[in-house]
Amino acid sequence: MQRNFLKMAESMKQELIETRRDFHRHPELGYDLERTSGKVKQFLNKWGIEHKDTARTGICAIIRGKGTKTIGIRADMDALPLEDKKVCDYSSEVKGKMHACGHDAHTTILLGAAKILNSIKDELRGNVKLFFEPAEETTGGAKLMIEDGVLEDPKVDRVIGLHVEENIEVGNIGLKLGVVNAASNPFDIKIKGVGSHGARPHMGIDPVVIASHVVIALQEIVSRELPPTDAGVITIGSIHGGTAQNIIPDEVTISGIIRTMKTEHREYVKKRLCEITNGVVNSFRGKCEIDIQESYPCLYNDNRAAQDILNAAYDVIGKDKVKILEKPSMGVESFAYFSMERPSAFYYLGCRNEEKQIIHPAHGNLFDVDEDCLPIGVAIQCKAAYDFLR
Q1: 3-class SS string, the chain
Q2: Based on the domain organization, do 58 and 171 belong to the same domain?
Q3: Residue 360 assigned ligand-binding role
Q4: 206, 352: one domain
Q5: Which domain does 226 fall in, by range?
Q6: Start and end of every Peptidase M20 dimerisation domain (predicted)?
Q7: 265 is known to lie in a ligand binding site
Q8: Structure pTM?
Q9: Cys-Cys link to 84, which of 98, 188, 212, 240 (CB 3.0-4.6 A)?
C-alpha cells in the first residue's frame, strides 16, 4: 500500500504547531526535563504507545509491528541557557532559558511521526523505536541511552534523525554523505613552573612563557601533521595564570578543544598534543598535567541509510528540493553516538523563511523556525521508517 505521509502530516499541522509552541514556551535544560518528558509521555499514553524511562529523563518508546526488523528515530529535547528576545506569543516564559536550537521542533516532529506510524502499525513489517534524548547540548544523553540498552530488545537495525537548519529554505532538506560532524575533545593543560619576582626571572621558571610556546607549537599539529585535504582544529579558548604585573606565577592553565573529522585523526591529534606539550614544557624545565576529555565522536552517515532518506525525501517533497551538502560541519552532534553503533542517517530540515524574517542563527536570542517545516519533517521520518521496514 502506498501512503501519502505528507497529506497525513498536513492534516495535523495545527496540532504540531500548538505542541511545538508549548515546548518553546517552557524550555528546560540538560537532564532537568521533567515537564518536557512528562508532556511527551502524556502523548504516548494517549495513543497507547509502550514506553520506558532511560538516561534519567529520556524516553524510549516502541511501536510494535509485524516482524523483528527495527528502526530507531531520535529527537533531542533540551534547550539552551539563553534569554529569548523574540517578540511573539510563544516566546520563552522561563527567564534565561530558550529553545534556541530547534529541539522543540525535533521533539514535536517525532511525536507527529509516532502518532501516524502508530495509527498504521498493522501495516508495519517490523518495529519503530522512538528515542527522546535529554542533554544533547551538554554531555549527550544518547551515550547513556545506549548504555541503558535502547538499541537492544529488540535489536535496532538502523537509526535516523534530523536537525532544523536556518540556512536551508523551508520546504527543502540537506544531507551530507559520509562524515557529517566532527568529533570533539576538550582539554586542560596545567603548566607548573617556579614563581619569582618579575624583576628576577632567572630565579624562577616562568609558566607564562612556557604556555606561550605550547600554544604556538600545538597549532603545528593541524597545519603540518594532518593531510591538508582533511579538516581539523585545535582551539585554545582560555589561558589563566598570575595575579600581578610584577609577579611570575608558579602555575598557568590552558584550556581548549580539538575537533577532527576522522577517528584515526582524533587518536593521532590526542597523542601528539601530549607528546608536544610534554616536550616543550620539559625543554623549559617545567612540569605539566594534561587532561583530554572524551566528548562526542564523529557523526557518519551510512551510505545505504542516507540513500533511503534521499528516496523518502524525493517522494515527499520532490528531488529538486533535496540538496546534497558538500562540506561537513566542525560542530558536534550527539546523534554521532548512535551512528557509531548502528547504520544511521542524519539530515537537515530547512526552516528558513526570509519573508517571515526567520533568518537568525541557532544558539542566538532571536532564533525561530518556520513551522511549515514540521509536517515535512514528520512525513519524511514516517516515509523513511515505513519503507525501511518493508
Answers
A1: CCCCHHHHHHCCHHHHHHHHHHHHHCCCCCCCCHHHHHHHHHHHHHCCCEEEEECCCEEEEEECCCCCCEEEEEEECCCECCCCCCCCCCCCCCCCCECCCCHHHHHHHHHHHHHHHHHCHHHCCCEEEEEEECCCCCCCHHHHHHHCCCCCCCCCCEEEEEEEEEEEECCCEEEECEEEECEEEEEEEEEECECEECCCHHHCECHHHHHHHHHHHHHHHHHHHCCCCCCEEEEEEEEECCCCCCEECCEEEEEEEEEECCHHHHHHHHHHHHHHHHHHHHHCCCEEEEEECCCCCCEEECHHHHHHHHHHHHHHHCHHHEEEECCCECCCCCCHHHHHHCCEEEEEEEEEEHHHCECCCCCCCCCCCCCCHHHHHHHHHHHHHHHHHC
A2: yes
A3: no
A4: no
A5: 183-292
A6: 187-275
A7: no
A8: 0.94
A9: 98
